[in-house]
Structures are given as C-alpha cells and as structure tokens.
Amino acid sequence: ASPAYAIYYFTESQVTVPEIMGSPQGVLPLMHTVAAMATNRKLTIKAPMDWAFDDFTSTISPWGAMTALNAPALMNELCGSSHLAAEISDPVLPQNNGIFSFDGTPASTAHIRLETGRLMQLLSGYADVSVLLSQGHAELLAPIADTLIECLPSCPCFTVEEY
C-alpha cells in the first residue's frame, strides 16, 4: 500500500479530518478506515473539491488556515505581473486591503475582487479563477478570466501545517 496519513478527531456527532496527505492509492484505504470508525457520525474531510469518495458518505470541505501575511509581497514573488490587478479584502490584516497589481505594487483599477484567503487559493494553485467565480468567492471586474487562468492555473496542491 502507498503511504498516507490523516489527522482526524471525533466529536459526539462528527468526525473531522482537517489534514490528509498521500497518493490516491494510500488515501482511499485510510479514509475507508476513518469512515468505518465514524459509525453514525457525519464525516467531514478537508481536501480539494474535486476529490470524491464514492464508497462512503462524506462532506469535502475546502477550509484551512492558509493566508498571506503580506499579500502584495507574495503576489510579487509568485506572479510578478504588472498588467493584472486584484482588489483584496482582509478582515484581519489591514495592510492586505487594497488594489494591487500581481507584481505587488498599488494599482488604481482592479480586474478581480476577492478575499485574501481566496487569493491564497489562486496563488497556490488550489483553485483557478473559474472555480472561485463559480463558487461565488471572486468577482470579475474586467473580462480577463482566460488570462488569469493561463497565468494562474490550478494544480495539485497540498498544504501541510505545523501544529
């Protein structure tokens, strides 16, 4: 079997898996084991939204604690593009609020509007623009979705957090 691990916890009514890592060949048997232990509890798994476990009932949830401490600097490091800009909102870190080009410099006109956590999903490859738009997590302010998808495509993404 392929190696995989999961961090999970039980409450009276639910089993939550906030972190899972491994190849599909390793993750599936592990999730079968956790699902069997869940008995009559709801099973919620943090995983990419395109994951599906057909052999048992679960809820796939894309939550996480990933955020940018300095969104403009991160945009510059990961993109470095000055021809696209985003209006970012962050209820926790005021310095992340504003309109920034994807090279991190302040801009006057935005092409897309989204929260910092959704920006992280976009920059890390967890979700592309079409996914964020379809889920209502981003608002396109100019007709540039294809350009953003080309510049920032989705890709296999795993976040490993330290506890």
Can you offer a commentary on this structure?
- With 163 residues, this protein is an alpha/beta fold.
- 28% of the residues lie in helices and 28% in strands.
- It has five helices and eight strands.
- A hairpin with a 3-residue loop joins β1 and β2 (14-22).
- The longest helix is centred in the first third of the chain and has 15 residues, at 24-38.
- The mean pLDDT is 84.
In short:
28% of the residues lie in helices and 28% in strands. It has 5 helices and 8 strands, in the order E-E-H-E-E-H-E-E-E-H-H-E-H.
Q: What's the alpha carbon Rg, rounded to whole Å? A: 18 Å
Task: State the separation between the terminal residues, measured CA to CA.
Answer: 27 Å
The side-by-side strand order for the widest beta sheet comes to 1-2-3-4
Fraction of helical residues: 25-40%
| Largest sheet, strands/sense/barrel | 4 strands, mixed
Shape: elongated
Uncertain parts: none
Strand content: 25-35%
Coarse structural class? alpha/beta
What is the count of helical runs? 5
Residue-averaged pLDDT, rounded?
Answer: 84
The strand count comes to 8
- Listing every helix as H and every strand as E from the N terminus to the C terminus, the arrangement reads EEHEEHEEEHHEH
